[in-house]
């Protein structure tokens, strides 16, 4: 019949409702249903009926539990659970240890995922903000993406596309541009890199909290500056600095700026990390080249924009593309396609070297961490189930007597579930404490600043407790049912449970855990070996004992004519000191890339498409860096600027210059730069880390450059450092002095690998702990059935050693199987890991042997300890029970 | 006169109790809900009425009896509610208290 109350809510009501109330409730809502049917029709009545049933779904109407659920029983259950925990301290400890480690790791991973996913979401309009990106295609083949756009793009799209609400152009400091900012009042100056030039609309598009000033007044004036709380304190000691002035020198500008706003510290979860904001108009006005080609020639700006409500991003892309196509005309083979990036996705999808931040995160990693957390938790619960089952078998007599005294099965299950709940809750609290203890380590490894603030959010606390309760019920179910299903008579006979069946599953689990542990140990081992390998490779020059001093910036503004003189004076002052062997000026230092990359060719050849890394150096370069020329004489002091080039063997080969000796004296063109004579050929070298394969290098002579590299040869390092600093301060009195050792800076390139290694180390440790617990549990479980056997064997003359071998033999077979499973996993894992590296170790047998040995040692100690306990027991105690 | 804690009566409880009194021997879930809708234009859900009835019964202000059935109820019986002496007393008490306080508001007089 059509006009009947819907079926399933009715059934649901019957299911949950207390039978005593059920008839009246159902009668009442049927009556109301009929009434609504007459007045408003069947559709409304049925919906309203569902709603009524839902409204009745409250505890006071629930079915009452059928067994005696008085609070005394609950209290009794908790008391017994507590006693059981205290009586078997080792078991309880191991059980809670495994669970709480698993939970703590999950908590931390959850917090980390939460942190990552929150990137750039604090802006009110975050979901509505996008950034322009261009994809370059050569002959319809994707070549590269660029996230920078020209000056003219912002205003053009703002004007022509009605869906675009606000546009902001951001122009950061370019590579190593660096400016010197000083507070004139107290002569404090620092070299700064975290400076953005932004449009006035910056604060309309993005939401930042002002300590001083407001989004309306900030950056209105051409000579205004906005500071963050940190930079205000760095220069002025406090944040109450509205209207004070800072002077900026270096790069394209030298001017004084008035503080027009101070921002609250930036949150860590944003890719826009800056210390200073300046008006974009300032740099546009003062830097001529930006206006060339009507502002469409220089790609130094990042263009962000917001859309109006309901605007279609796809149609906006088309419109941007049409505007960009009008202005950007690469040659026939090249095509530029416009794209947009959602603000909140930039952190995960924009891993480009030129981006505003290193956006190395990606969604895959996030899911990977989530999966790891889940697996760890599952393994922890499986161990928990095994251990609880093993533990409760020891209490077979208790269960038997309870049954004999008339305890119902449901009550037994309730008691065992109470124990499970107690253990899980305690483990949950320990996990929180553990998470707080591990937090600093995690922060260090992942290089983030996490706080466990999810714990302060009510929804998470409920989720956490909910997961705890549900999981303790689910995990406690198996042991509870096994134990409560035993027949008292079979307990009295002494063979309560048949153990053959569940046993195999347990073996599979432990074997898998060990296979995972061995694989992880192997991967960690390889990661560290690979890092050591890369660090120990010969770079082709000597980076030790070189001190890097960033060159002067202020002096450039004081007068370009002065510079070469000062530059020379500085170098000769340094070299005159006995402890300094050599000084050179270079545009870039090893590990920091090249000043530009360009195609090189012989004058008669067609340009190819292999790029060479170009670095400007002065005449002392090969001397200071200890490079051996294999052909030619290199540069001389009197060589003119941009007159010669030193190249490596790879460049000789790539650009077909013949042999090294033939290359000397040839002219070579560096596209879009100059034609130079080859003055020397050096051996191949690694200017950057060994993540990069061999590239053609070109070192072009130039008179003055951004970095000084000072080679020191002295027993007294402090004296040398002091001498360098005092010389710098005398020659360049207005510049801040900074220095660091090249080898240390160079090693920082391997930070990502080291981080990866540490992460795997942590995962390995967790896997080992879990596997050890699993193994311990399994040994305990099976030994507990062999107590009498052991006793009889001992009486008949077996030694402790015999028994230990007998008991532990099967586990080493499992371990062997685990090793065999691990071999292919390790092999493929390592292969795909090493494929990322052009220079890599050749994996040998030690990669499986050493992890295997480590795992065997751990297993030996675990199994040995547990079997020793049993084998050493006095047979009188074990046999007397009969 | 001192009252035991927990035997106080809330606004909605009082309303339901009054309605039960008015409906005499025809007070059950649906009729109470309909009466509330008629008298006060408050559209309350039937589950809320049941909840209050349970509470009133626990407090001893009403007692219940199994009643007959109708066609619309699909053969299910009604649970009919009657006011007890305690229920009557509590109504008298709250009405008296309210009146005595009401007349003491300056500038108001009894109609």
Task: Please outline what is shown here.
Chain A has about 900 residues and is α+β, with helices and mostly antiparallel strands. In chain A, strands 1, 2, 3, 4, 5, 6, 7, 8, 9, 10, 11, 12 and 13 form a 13-stranded mixed β-sheet that branches. In chain A, strands 16-17-22-19-21-20 form a 6-stranded mixed beta barrel. In chain A, strand 4 and strand 5 form a beta hairpin.
What does this structure look like?
- The complex is a heterodimer of chains A (882) and B (111).
- Chain A is an alpha+beta fold.
- Chain A is 51% helix and 16% strand.
- Chain A contains 29 helices and 24 strands.
- Chain B is mostly helical.
- Chain B contains four helices and two strands, in the order αααββα.
- Chain B has helices at 11-23, 29-40, 46-59, 85-102, and strands spanning 62-66, 79-83.
- Chain B has a two-stranded antiparallel sheet.
- Chain B is elongated and about 55 Å long.
- The two termini of chain B are 28 Å apart.
- Residues 1-6 of chain B have low confidence and may be disordered.
- Classes of the chains: A alpha+beta (882), B mainly alpha (111).
- Chain A binds chain B through residues 21, 23-32, 34-35, 51-52, 55-56, 58, 60-61, and chain B through 28-30, 33, 45-48, 50-51, 54, 69-70, 72-74, 76-79.
